[in-house]
Design a protein that fits this description.
Blueprint lengths: L1 E3 L2 E3 L15 H12 L9 H4 L21 E8 L7 E7 L5 E7 L12 H11 L5 E5 L9 H18 L5 E11 L1 H11 L2 H4 L8 E5 L6 H6 L5 H6 L3 H6 L2 H4 L7 E6 L5 H15 L3 E6 L3 H6 L6 H11 L3 H7 L15 H17 L1
Parallel strand pairs: 5-6, 5-7, 7-8, 8-9, 9-10
Antiparallel strand pairs: 1-2, 3-4, 4-6
């Protein structure tokens, strides 16, 4: 990765093994059901879209997390009075000044949950033992809260987590926002214009990782053929489409942003590239990483050993020296992590050091 005139020039791309296919409601329904191991749906519905059985309130009752031994978990810490205003906090040992991965689940703005296995399992297993704190949140869903209100709930959750971070051994100034699908849209919307989050009491964070949202430009999305779930989320008002578009919301105050997109979807990568191009014109740090994985795998596979996870870690490591230290800690304690202006060099160092630690 090179820094040129304040911009990140990044080549976070893999070989495209299959061309993207046109994204239809049935494609999304079938993909989600197969991935979750559920029976193929006989009819539509947002619950089926992600292959989830739901309980009252739209929350999933399958796919519970499998957390490794030795991980501390605080369940259902409240950030408001509403039932869905809860977060789980994962840590190990007694951290001090730990960076935080602040995770926002997906589910079409209507379903999903903070404690679904795909949302937390591999992320917790990978990063919490390395010294990170991971926070996974719930937020009110459609129809109880529209998308704009949901962004406000996420901002309030962030503000609350930052306020209490020290008591969990975390650093309130070293938060990395991360979200998948609808959650990726919400964190990207806040990252595009941080003032919206600051109005809810949040403090600056160091960067954002967006996992496969196809809704960076909602105007473009809604004017084209699209899955029905977007009608429920964004309505029919073009002004609302624009207001809920990270693409249009972006200002020069936007923070560093990485978008991971699935090449198996039709709109995700094209919208993400346009978003990164707009960021470049504003002097905002942005990077795009393409993966030949399904929408669900983009979420569930992050944290597994491999080039995908390391690519995301390369972005994270460039955000802050403490993050870089935890991700690429030299075997000799006390030594500063090596610096690299090369994306390839950083990937190589991260891989080599993880291999050395496993051997020891």
């Amino acid at each position: 990765m090179r820094i040129v005139s304040g911009l990140w020039v990044a080549a976070f791309c893999v070989v495209l093994c299959h061309p993207a296919q046109a994204e239809t409601q049935d494609d999304l329904l079938n993909d989600g059901a197969v991935e979750a191991g559920a029976a193929m749906p006989s009819s539509g519905g947002l619950a089926n879209l992600f292959g989830l059985k739901t309980i009252e309130g739209g929350r999933s009752n399958i796919g519970a997390p499998h957390i490794p031994p030795g991980i501390n978990v605080i369940h259902d810490f409240p950030y408001g009075a509403l039932p869905d205003q809860k977060m789980d906090i994962y840590s190990k040992g007694n951290p001090s000044g730990a960076p935080v991965i602040f995770m926002v689940h997906g589910g079409g703005w209507r379903n999903g949950g903070k404690d679904i296995g795909k949302t937390v399992d591999n992320k917790v297993a990978r990063w919490v033992p390395e010294g990170f704190v991971l926070i996974s949140i719930n937020y009110p869903m459609i129809p109880d809260a529209g998308v704009a209100a949901q962004a406000g709930h996420v901002a309030l959750a962030l503000a609350t987590a930052q306020k209490h971070a020290a008591q969990w051994g975390a650093d309130p100034a070293k938060f990395i926002l991360m979200g998948h699908s609808a959650g990726a849209h919400l964190v990207s919307l806040l990252n595009a214009d941080p003032d919206a989050a600051y109005r809810h009491g949040a403090e600056p964070w160091i960067g954002t990782v967006s996992l496969d949202s196809g809704a960076m430009n909602v105007v473009e999305l809604m004017q084209a053929h699209h899955a029905r779930l977007y009608d429920d989320a964004f309505g029919t008002d073009p002004e609302q489409w624009k207001a809920l578009s990270p693409y249009y919301a972006m200002t020069t105050k936007a923070g560093p942003w990485l978008n991971v997109c699935s090449t198996k979807r039709d709109t995700s990568c094209s919208q993400s590239k346009a978003m990164a191009d707009r960021a470049a014109t504003l002097g905002v740090r942005a990077a795009l990483h393409q993966e030949n994985l399904t929408h669900g795998q983009i979420n569930g596979n992050l944290g597994l050993t491999g080039a995908y996870t390391v690519a995301v870690e390369a972005f994270m490591a460039a955000l802050d020296p403490k993050v870089a230290e935890l991700l690429a800690l030299p075997i000799t304690k006390g030594a500063a992590p090596e610096k690299s202006s090369s994306h390839t060099g950083l990937l190589q160092r991260l891989q080599e050091r993880r291999a050395e630690r496993k051997q020891n």
